[in-house]
Amino acid sequence: MALKAKVLGREALTRRLNELAPAVEKYAAEAKLEIAKEAATRIAAKAPRGETGDYAASIQGARLVDNPDNGRSA
After folding, report:
1. Under a CB-based contact definition with an 8 Å cutoff, are residues 62 and 33 in contact?
2. 43: nearest Cα among 66, 60, 31
3. Cys bridge to 61: 29, 33, 36, 48, which one at CB 3.0-4.6 A?
4. What distance in Å separates the CA atoms of residue 55 and residue 61, rounded to the nearest whole number?
5. Could you give the maximum distance between any two Cα atoms of the chain, in Å?
6. Tell me: the pLDDT tens digits for 32-47?
7. 61 and 53 in contact (C-beta within 8 Å)?
8. For residues 59 and 47, is the Cβ–Cβ distance under 8 A?
9. Is the four-CA dihedral 23, 63, 50, 54 of positive or negative sign?
10. CB within 8 A of 56, min separation 6: which ones?
11. Is-contact 57 40, C-beta < 8 A?
12. 61 and 40 Cβ atoms separated by less than 8 Å
């Protein structure tokens, strides 16, 4: 029995998903952000505190574009 598969690039896959379910990107983005926030909370809880606790406090689950002071260009 032969198995055939078509390999799509990310853009093609996203375009096809949007054809099938137009709101898929919106809901996926919401779910990714929620997961990032949960992961950041768990990581911050285990992070070293040091004298100031700045490192643990700096761990956030957010989009990079929403944090312009992160020292990186978008």
Report:
1. yes
2. 60
3. 36
4. 14
5. 63
6. 999 999 999 999 999 9
7. no
8. yes
9. negative
10. 44, 45, 47, 48, 49
11. no
12. yes
Asked if pLDDT for residue 72 goes beyond 60, the answer is no
What angle is formed at CA 36 by the lines to CA 34 and CA 37, rounded to 5 degrees?
A: 65
Average pLDDT, stretch 63-72? 74
Nearby residues of 39 by Cβ (< 8 Å), 6 or more positions away: 61
**Pair of tokens at residue 7:** 């390999």
4-62: pLDDT as tens digits: 767 778 888 888 888 888 888 888 889 999 999 999 999 999 999 888 888 898 888 98
Q: What does DSSP assign to residue 68? A: G
Copy the structure tokens of residue 40.
Answer: 């950041």
What is the percent of the chain where pLDDT is above 70? 92
